Amino acid sequence: MDGLLEFPLAAPPAPGEKVFVAPGIWWLRMPLPFALDHINLWLLEDGEGWTLIDSGYGSPETRALWGRIFAESLDGRPLTRIIATHFHPDHIGLAGFLCDHFGAPFFATEKEWLSARLARAEEGDDVAALRTRFARRAGLDPAAALRYAERGKAYRRAVPSLPPSYHRLEEGMTLVIAGRRYEVIVGEGHAPEHASFYCRESRVLIAGDQVLPKISPNISLTAQEPEGDPLGRYLSSLDRLGQRVARESLVLPSHNLPFYGLKERIEALQRHHLLRCQEVLRACSRPRSAAELLPVLFPRRLDTHEEGFALGEALAHLNHLVFQGAIERSASADGVLCFSAANARLAPGARRAQSSPNSTFIA
Fold it and tell me: What predicted TM-score, i.e. pTM, was given to this entire model?
């Protein structure tokens, strides 16, 4: 047990090996080149083959591990269907390679498919200029704004290819895998149209990044949608997920360990974001830029990879408070956006507070 969560498996599989976790479901783990150093993938028995959920980061190390899995862990059966929960590189990075290797169809929601295609294409000067302006308006200095803009060019390296076509997943549809029915549950906020998969018969939720047991998924405002409210969409998605999935279900997350305690974890994540909003509101007793709030929300030293996620997360909380009417936004003489508290308390939409889970950045 860890607080209110129960972890039925004490350790992950070694790289290149699989571990049984639930009827018809096996667990793979792949490395990531970040502080968050792993991703969980899920291999589902499916007749004469396997359905794979998520593919790993597009690195030579991960590709080499797939070579071991082909030889040792598939029991002579091919991958016959490859699914991506969302478009982030650790989830879709090797989908093109695997689909090509096995001649397998690829499944994703429409927004995740289009987001992946767009992210691979966004390497021009116009996109770099957009990201630079966004970062400067958030208060980053020129050097930090340039680093933020350069991060946009990393996607193609991490996702070297994509399948040329896809099968669309949609909210409420059902996938039948080895006779078991998996409902598609769409979430927003961390990604545009994130797909989780719930089997009522087995009471198993393959959650992707939407709910993680130890860390909170990154909720970021982006340069492409600077007036959005991703945090509001994420909190609404958590409510819907909690209503759809039975309390006693086993949750298979993309990071950390499988766990029981979905309802408790959802409540903890909601409290976490309320506390973040309260911290932001207190800090905005005088006008502040998003960059000035980074040491408030993230007091530890951030590396270059984390800095961009931190800025997006700070802006997501600021925009959420602007939408609630708790914070007002204005531009300084040099064009930097400044945020200041409009009143002394949160608007009624932001509830739930007591404790906070650890934060990290999930690409």
Answer: 0.92
